[in-house]
Amino acid sequence: MENFYLIIVVVLFALAISDLIVGVSNDAVNFLNSAFGSKAAPRWAILAIASLGVLVGATFSSGMMEVARKGIFHPDQFYFAEIMIIFIAVMLTDIILLDFYNTVGLPTSTTVSIVFELLGAAVAVAVVKIMNSSDQTILDLGSYINSAKALAIITGILLSVVIAFFSGALVQYVSRLIFTYKFEKTFKYFGALFGGFAITAITYFILIKGAKGSSFITKETLSWIKENTLTIIFVCFVGWTVVLQALVWFVRLNILKVIVLVGTFALAMAFAGNDLVNFIGVPLAGFKSFQAFIANPGTDAYGMTMEILNDKVKTETYLLIIAGLIMTITLWFSKKARTVTETEIGLSNQNEGEEKFGSSFFARLLVRRSLSANSSLKSILPVKFQEGIQKRFAKPSAPAGIDKKDVPAFDMIRASVNLTVASILISIGTSLKLPLSTTYVTFMVAMGSSLSDRAWDRDSAVYRITGVLTVIGGWFFTAFFAFTAAFIFASLINWLGGYAIIGLLVVAVAFVVRSHVFHKRKSKGQDSAEEIDEEDASIISKGEILEQLTHAVSVVTTKIPKVYAKIVNGLAFEERGTLKESLKKVRKLDKEAKSLKDQVPFVVQKLSEDSITTGPFYVQLLDYLREIAHSINFIAEPAFDYVDNNHKSLVSEQINELNIIQTKLEDFFKTINRLLKDNNYDLNQIEKAFGKQKDLLSSLSKFRKEQIKRIKAEKVGTRNSVLYLGIINETKNLVLYSGNLLKASRDFTTTNGVIDLTNDDL
Question: Which residue would you say has higher pLDDT here, 363 or 734?
């Protein structure tokens, strides 16, 4: 029996390593966003500083480890075997949940996940104990669950979200009023004070408050720190202020850059000190339980209660350092971490750009109400006061000649506020041994500072608010899924034993591998479009504008006839699967065409004045690509709905006519594609292509008349007629837009000699 539980302990530590990798990909990246978004330093320098912070902070998390042992349930009410069931269910759930969030690129909370997983698994085991007991009812569940502590943790996490948002908004608003966007001059006089305050706050809350959980600081040292707190704060503030001011005078030090980098280090420490428990706390608690079990040979696994977990246990420093090293390596090499980073930076971006999220009803309503409230406030405040505020928040124009991808998402004033406020809040939670969510705090501080910094203007507010609501909604899903999945897993393990553990391990590995493959394909989709099947290739590629457009047009003219042929075949043989697959590809094409169209303003802004004659052709070409995507979508969707709703089959005449159209359409697109690939716009070749277009349009007109005859003869029903006439009409539009696409491509290519532009953003 001991060997069985030894295997479980080994599995727990294996899962802990995996959880460190998966968890850090989602959570640790939050302290990198401010430095990355403001471009305070090269990527390698930021990662090096953050890595050092993680390693140092890992040794500060020893005091937090008791949350996993007794923070959610009463361990003395559970037997050793039951405790191990809880722990293995928690780790399996955590890996699956966090990997899912990493794959979709949404930040979630490892703290919330671990709290609700422990709660769900403990409730499941407790319910089984109650069911097997003759003198207990469900009302006795409170004797197993540490409901007061769990409620305090959950309340603290939710309250931290509100506090973080308003703290970030308030501090950023005051900071911007003082320094404005043109802060260079003001910083000569007040920058050292600002830096001294920020770094002193970080020093106090991280190095002093956080020291309480350190695995190597003695009680005497902690006592001395507590007795001399005010002195330490005063010395730090004066010392940092003097040092920073001297460096400004003598070496022209950029104080904001120092604050951002020190803040990154500090927040990395806070992360490791607060969140390491979420990754290794459960396996370590399982290991301590196993040590207690084998120390009492002959004891039944269902006869030994786990009062030992109520005792304070100091985690060995070497284990914390090993965990810190694993997190650091993940920080450098995780591609999923970059996906999560893009979400937060995109929502706080000061500049215009492509929005990741759409618009929602609640976001639109909130913006309308805010605009109304703003108008009412303006009617009350003096005009001079409003003008003064507006002047302080006036944004400078972007420097000319700088590529869009090189422009920081926000300046270092906001980055320093984000890091300082988040570090203070998280460090307070750590010192109080409350497992605050670093994700929630850093995210909400960043969103609050973005709001007060007017990054959410009328052109972007609805999309940014929708994004924030999506992320917050995902947080509630985290809690629900964590509790439910851990409850189910613990129940299965309790009933099926080792078989359930093996099965769930296989499921977890399969899920992680599958999501890894999905994320890899998603991230490589734009860079390696040429390496996959042309029918599945993305129309978006990198390179010069001419190369991008040539690629887009080539892929579209290759993809359309193939998809059209599948739609016709699916209608003829009523193959729902074929039509569903075609609709999926068409929607992807439509989305990509929209993405290209949305990039038009940014490209046009960068066109030189002598390229003004090329601009209209470029815009026109993308318009036609978008319309072609619309047309094929308006064919694919009704066709799928028709078969999906089991309507009557098309008559043989209609199928024959569609086959004729499909053959001619394929020939027409092959001609266009050949001309585009060969860059051959000879007049005779162009006329040949338009001759095929004319023949195809003639056939469409003829078949429309045939359908009208069938309607009059009552050979077809209303739904059949709506579908068929819709296909004929949209095919006509498709053919016309394709001809215009050929003309626009010719005009753009022949006049493109005046363009000298590279754009990697399309």
Answer: 734
DSSP helix/strand/coil, 305: strand
- Three-state SS across 134-192? CCCCHHHHHHCECHHHHHHHHHHHHHHHHHHHHHHHHHHHHHHHHHCCCCHHHHHHHHH
The answer to pTM > 0.70 is no
Closest CA to 449 of 370, 347, 355, 310: 347
- How many angstroms from the chain centroid is the CA of residue 111? 18
545-753: CATH, from 3.20.20.190, 2.40.110.10, 1.10.340.30, 1.20.58.220: 1.20.58.220
Quick one: tokens of 306?
């786990």
> How far is 613 from 754, CA to CA, in rounded Å?
9
pLDDT (tens digit per residue) in 300-348: 788 787 777 776 656 667 777 888 888 888 878 776 666 666 666 777 7
Q: Contact 505/95 with Cβ under 8 angstroms?
A: no
Question: Tokens representing 408?
Answer: 């920081």
Q: CA 748, 547, 557 angle in degrees (round to 5)?
A: 75
User: How far apart, in whole angstroms, are the C-alpha atoms of residue 577 and residue 659?
Assistant: 19
Domain ranges in the chain are 1-395+411-520, 545-753
Which one-letter DSSP state was computed for residue 203? Answer: I
Using one digit for the tens of pLDDT, what is the confidence trace for 149-178? Answer: 777 777 777 788 888 899 999 999 988 888
pLDDT (average), residues 16-30: 70
Nearest to 490 by CA among 673, 678, 282, 630: 282
